[in-house]
Batch of 4 targets.
Target 1
Amino acid sequence: MSELQRLIDLTLAERSYRLRFPPLLEARYEKDTEAARRRSLKQALLASLVVYASFEFDLWYIAPDIRHWDPFVRLGISAVLLAGALVQSFRLSAWIRETIPFGVAVLVALHIGAQVLGSHSAAGIHILYTFPLLIVFTNLFGQLIFPFSVALSALVGVIFLFVLHALKEISWAEQLNAGLVMLSTIGITLLGNYRLERQQRQTYLLSLQETLRREALSKVNRRLRQLTFSDYLTDLANRRRLEQVLEEVWRAPNGNSQPLGILMVDVDHFKAFNDRYGHLSGDACLQTVAKILRAHMRSGVDVVARYGGEEFVVVMPDQTLLSTVRTGERIRLAVEDAALPHEVSPYQVVTVSIGVASASIADIANPETLIAQADAALYAAKEAGRNRVFPPLSSVIEPTQEIYSNK
C-alpha cells in the first residue's frame, strides 16, 4: 500500500472535524482541484459583478442623495471585481487565489457601510440589510474556503456593528433586531460553508481512493499478463509468448514474401557450470546472456525468448540468412567478451553455440519447421566444437559474393 493510500484510509476512518488533510494528501488535493477551483471562483466573481452593478439602479430611488459619488465608487470596485475574475484564468498560488475574492468582498462591505452612513434619505436605512446578503453570497454561492469565510464574516461583522452603532436614526430595538439578523446569517452560512467544503473533500477522498484502487488493480493485471508471457528469471518472453509471436508473424498480411530469421542459442556446458559454481551463479549467468541477447535486438522488431533451460530463441523478421548469421556472430563474440569464468569449459569462459535458419514464410509450412531447422543448425554447431555459429559466416558470405561476381 502506498503512503497516499494509507493516508486516505486513515483520514476516512478518523472522521475528524478538521477540514485540512495531512500535508501529502493536501498537496495532492490542491493539485487535482486547482483548475476547477479557479473556474468556480471566476464564475462566482463574474456573477457577483452582475449582482453588485445591478444594485446601482435600486440605489437611485432609495438613496438619491449619494448619486453624485456612489456610481464612481461602484465602477471602481466593479473594475476590481472584473480584474479578479480574469486573473483566475491564470495559475496562482492557493493563498493568492483565495485572497482575491476575500479582498473584493471586504471592499464591497466598506462600500455598503459608506452608503449607509453617507445617505440621509429615510429609505437609505434599508441599505443596511445588504450586509447579510453579502455574507450569504460569499459564504454559500461564492463558497470561500472555510478559514477565509470565518475571517471575512468576522471582518464584515465588525464593519456592520460599527455602522449600526453610528446610526442615530434607528431605535435600540431596531439595532438589536438588525444585529440578530446579521449574527444569525453569519452563523447559518458558516455552518453551510463548512458542511459544503467537508462534503467536497470527503467526496474527493472517496473518488481518489477508488482511482488509486483501479490503478493498483490495473498494475497487478499488467504484471500478471507480463508474468503470463515472460520468463521469471530473465524477464524475456517465455515459450508461450514465442509461439504467439510466431503465429502473429505467420498470419501477418502481405508478410509471406518476407524472410524470417531464427537464432537458436545454447549456453555451452551449462550443466557443468551449475555443478561447479552452483545454481545461483547459473541463474546469474543466464541473466547476463539474456541481457546480451536483448542488447543486440532491434527494438520493437525482434523478439528474444527463453526456450527452456539454457536455450534461447531469437525471432528476427525481414532478415536474410546472411544478416541473421552476422547477428548471431556478434552475439557469440559479446558473450565470449563478457568473460564469465567457466573453468570446466575448454574456453575457460562462458560461451554460446548458435544455430541459424532463415527462409521466406511462403516457403515454410509452419513455424515449427523453421525452429527445427535452427535446432538442427545448433546441433551442428555443437558437434563442430561449440562456441560457434552454424552455418558459419564464411560459408554464407562466399556464395553471396559469387553471385555478385557472376553478374
Target 2
Amino acid sequence: MSCATCANNSNGSLAKGCKNNGNCSTQGCNKLEVFDWLANMEQPQGVRLFEGVEVRFKNGRKGYYRNQDNLPVNVGDNVVVEVSPGHDVGIVSLTGELVKIQMQKRKIKGPTRDLKKIYRKATPADIDKWIAARGLEFETMHRARTMAIDLGLEMKISDVEYQGDRTKATFYYTADGRVDFRQLIKVMADAFKIRVEMRQIGARQESGRLGGVGSCGRELCCSTWLTDFRSVSTGSARYQQLSLNPQKLAGQCGKLKCCLNYELDSYLEAFKKFPKQDVKLQLKGGYAYHIKTDVFRQMMWFQSKMKDEEFPGPIVGLELDRIWEIIKMNENGDRPKSLKDFQVEEEIVEEPDYDNVDDQDDLGRFDKAFKKRRRPTRGKRRPVQKTNGKKQQVQGKSNKKQAPKGGGAKSSGGNKNARKAKPEGAAKGGSQGKAKGGGKKTRSSRRQGSNNQSKASE
C-alpha cells in the first residue's frame, strides 16, 4: 500500500506495513506493481537502453518521464521530475523495455522526446521538503471539507496530494453532478497559500486510491492490479444465480463488484448447452415448468402441473440429455406420461453408525467434572433443627450406635433432677460415653449436659 519507508529507511528497522522492508515476492508493497521479469537479463550489445522511466507517486498515480542525461537510476530511487509549474518528487518503479509496453497499455503514443524529463536524483533536502509536504495532506483535506460544507457544495473531498516543492496541491473529489467550485478555490488558495487544482474522480477510482479490504478478505482489486473499470450490470448476477441483494453485491465503492465479471464468460459458455429458462415440458394431461438450474451438475429441476389435480406435483431433477429428449418428443407430437421415468436416481449416502461411548453425547457429561468438592466439616458446629418449639441437636451418621439425648455419664450424674426426668436416657448416655471416650467428656456430652440442667431448672 505505497509504503514510503520500505526503500528509504534510515533507521534500519522494518517498515510499518508488511514488515518485509521491500523484500516481498511481488518486488514491493506498492499499488499496481509490475514485476520486472527482465531484471536479471543483460542488455544486448549495440542496443541502447530505453530512455523512458516509470515513476510512481501517491496512491498508485504513475507518470512516464525521459532520462535524457542517462542517470544511473534503479527501482526504488527517489528522483526529481519536471512538472508544470515547478518540480515534483517521485519513486522509480520500472525501467528498461517493460516501460515501453506499459506506455502502450496506457495509450501513450509518440516519441520519448515528448515526455517530460528527469532532472536529477533527489537530494536529502528535496526528500525532507517532500516528506514535510506529505505531512500536511491530512489536515489540509479536513479543512477543505469544512470549507466546502460552509459554501454549501454537494461534493466529497476524498484525497489531497501535495507537490514535492509545496507550491501546488491537487484535491480529488467525488460528486453526483457538476459543481461550481470557483469560490472554493479562492478560499483554499487564500488559506493554504498554494496553487489549487480540483480533479473529479468516480466512486471506483476513489476506492482504488484509498484502498481497502473486500468481502473476500483480500485487498481491493482496483488498488492492486485492476486498471480498467468495465460496467457491471445485475444480469451478471442473474447468470451466476446469485441473490439480488444489494448489500452483498455492492463493493466498498457502493457500486456492483467488479469481480462479478470475472467468471461471467464461463457461465455464458456453459448456458449454451441448457434450454431456455421459460421452457415448458408437455406431459399427458398437463405440463412441467422450470424451477431451478444447477450449472455445475448440469441439471434442471421441473415441477409438473396436471389439469385433473388441484396441487402441483413434486419437483423432479433431470439431466440435460433427458431434457433435450423430452423436448424432441414434444416436437414430434409425443408426450410422456410423467417425469418420474426420466428422473435421476440419486444415491443416498448412509451416515456411519456409531455408539455413544462413555456418554459422549450427554449434555451434562461435564457437570460432574467441574463440580466443587465440599471440604470436610471438622470443628464446625452442627446445624440445629427445631422440633415442637424446642431446639434439637442433629447427630451425624455413624456405624456405631447414636448417643441419645442425656449426655455422657459424668454430665448426667451431676444433676439429680435430670436423672429423675429421664433415667433411662441418662443411663444409656453414661454407658455409651464410657464406651466411646473412656470416661472423658466430649463436646456433645457437655452440650447435652447443659441442656439437661436448663430443663431441670425450669
Target 3
Amino acid sequence: MSADRAPDAGEGRRGEHAAGNAAGSPATGGSPAGSGPGNPGAETSGPDSARRGVKRRHLLFGGAAAGLGALAAAGAALSGGSAPAPDTGAETAGASAAGTADRAGITGAAVVPFYGPRQAGIETPAQAHAVFLALDLKPGLTRQRLAALLRLLSDDAAALTRGRPALADTEPELAVHPARLTVTFGFGPELLALAAPGLAPAWLRPLPAFGIDRLSPDYTGGDLLLQLCADDPLTLAHARRMLLKDSRAFTTLRWAQSGFLNAAGSGPAGATPRNLFGQLDGTGNPRKAEELDRVVWGGPDIRPWLENGTSVVIRRIAMNLDTWDELDRRGREESVGRTLDTGAPLTGTAEHDEPDFGARNSLGFPVIAESSHLRRARSDDEQQRIFRRSYNYDDAPGAAGSSGGISNSGQIFVSYQADVDRQFVPIQQRLDQLDILNEWTVPVGSAVFAVPPGAPEGGFVGEQLFS
C-alpha cells in the first residue's frame, strides 16, 4: 500500500487519447433526476371505480396519448390518493438544476478512443469506477476461435466506448453515455501459449511466493483479463454484461473484482486519490511524460515484450480497518512515512517533496523509519519503478473473506510496468521482508498479465499474435 501518485491530468498522455481525456476531465454536474414507474397500489372496486379510476390497460396501451399530466392523475387515482400538491420553491429549484445537469451531460458524453497504438485505460486518468474480469479459456478452444473471440470483444468494446450499442445489444439505451469508458486487455500464460507460444515473456508466470501472502483461488490467476473503467457505474455494469455475453461461448469467468475512487468531479482534476486507510495513494508515480513512458512502455535498458505492450500485476490487498482504527494518527503517519493530510514525507511539507531518509530526530532516530512503507517501497535503483492505477473495494461485513469485524475492505492494487521481474518483484520482496504496514494488510489475490499493444481502426487487440 504505497502512497504513490497518479500523473497530473495533463501529463503522461498520448496523442491517441488526448482529445478524449480532455473531454473527460471531471466537471461539476449531476445525472438526470429520473423516476421509475411507481407502484399504483391495490385496484379499487365497486360501481364508482369505472368512473373515478383509470384501468391498467389504459395506462399500458392508451395512456401515452394523454400526456404526462394524465399519467400523473392516473397514478393518483389508482393509488386512491388526491391530486398532487403544487410544487414548492425548493422542488422547482431542484427540478431546474436537474434539467440543467441533464442538458450539459459533460461526464456522460466524454469519450476515450479505443483504437490506437497503445491500449487506453493505462495512461488514461483514472475513472471513478472499475471492474476487473479474469476469464479462463474453455478446454479445446482452437487458435482460430481465440482470434474470433478477441475480434468480437474488440468490436464491441470499440462500440461501447463510443456510446454505441454492442452487437445484438438488448439494452442499447444503456450504452449512450460512455462516461470515459475504457476496456483494456491482458493475456495470461495459457492464452499466449495457444496464440503465439514463442512470444511469451519470461516474467509471464505467477509471482514468487511471499511470506505475507494468503492467496485465495477466488482472486488469483486467469487466462484473459478485461479491465473496464468508467465514470458512470451504470455504463460500466452494462459494458461488463455485454462483454461477458460475448465471451461465454469461449471462456468461463474465473473471478471478478469491482473497485471505486472518488466520484467524477468531486475533487480537483489530477489530484492523488485516497485509499481506505485515508492515505494519498499514488504520490510516487512518474509525473513526467518521458519517465512514465520508460516505466510503463520500456526503453533501451528495459525492453517491452512487444512494442507498445506492457505488463500488469493485480493484487487484492485486504486492509484490516478495524485494527487500523486502534492506531493513533501519529502512529499511522510513522507507519506510512508520510502525513495523512497532505501526503508530504515526514521530512517535508508538500506531497511531492523528496523524502530525506538521512534526517534524524532529537533522539537520533530516523525521522522516516527504516520499517516505514515509504522507505521500503523506495529504491535507489531508478529502474525499480512502477505505475500504480489502483482502486478501493468495500464489501459487506461478514461476506467471504471477512474477519468478522465491521469492515471487509481493501485495495485492488494495479501496477503497470514494462518488466515484472526487474521492476515490480524487487519492490515486493523488500515489502515482504520488512514493512510495518503488513500488520494491517494481507494480499489475498494475485495475477500477472501481458498487456498487448492497441489495435488500429478495424483491427482487434492481439491481432499481431496471429499474423
Target 4
Amino acid sequence: MSKAMQQATCSCGFSVTSGDEDEVVAVIQTHAHDEHKKEMTRNDVRAMMKDV
C-alpha cells in the first residue's frame, strides 16, 4: 500500500506535496524562515497539512 501524499500550503501560495511528512515539514520550515522570517514548529506545519 502506498503512502498518502501530504500537502502544506503557505498563506503566500507556496506549496509542497510529498509522501514523506519529514520532507513537507522541512521544506515549509525553511520557506517560512527564508521568505517570511518566521519560525514554525513541526506541530505548526502538521496543522497546515492535508492528505491529497
